[in-house]
Amino acid sequence: MARPNCSNFFDLPPSYVITAGFDPLADEGAAYVARLSEAGVPVFHRHFPGQIHGFLTMGPQFPTTEGALFDIGRWIQNFQ
After folding, report:
1. H-helix or E-strand containing 78?
2. pLDDT per residue as tens digits for the range 58-68
3. Bridge partners of residue 45, in order along the sequence
4. Contact call for residues 21 and 48 (beta carbons, < 8 A)
5. How far is Cα 57 from Cα 47, in angstroms, rounded to an integer?
6. At residue 18, what are phi and psi to the nearest 5 degrees?
7. pLDDT (tens digit, 9 = 90+) per residue, 68-80?
8. Under a CB-based contact definition with an 8 Å cutoff, are residues 19 and 47 in contact?
């Protein structure tokens, strides 16, 4: 099986990227957003400075989770 060309971002679908301030992967997420944008891929980036990696799965323990999930749902509805 041929390995996909990971340097070509042009054919990727519209993307919603969330980064969190206390996430060791936040910089990589922001770099991914930049690469998508440079390739002309529609991308929406939302950064949550006071959150940790995985906050979306923690439900009511994190007050921003519900709003973030609502925003994701609204974004998806706009692409249907």
Report:
1. helix 64-78
2. 888 888 999 99
3. 17
4. yes
5. 16
6. -110, 135
7. 999 999 999 997 6
8. yes
| Element of type H or E holding 27 | helix 26-38
Instruction: State whether residue 50 is helix, strand or coil.
Output: strand
Residue type, 21: G
Q: Minimal CA–CA distance to 79: which of 25, 42, 35?
A: 42
- Distant-in-sequence, close-in-space partners of 68: CB < 8 Å, separation ≥ 6: 18, 46, 48, 55, 56
pTM above 0.70, yes or no: yes
- Smallest CA-to-CA distance from 54 within 14, 31, 26, 15 is with 26
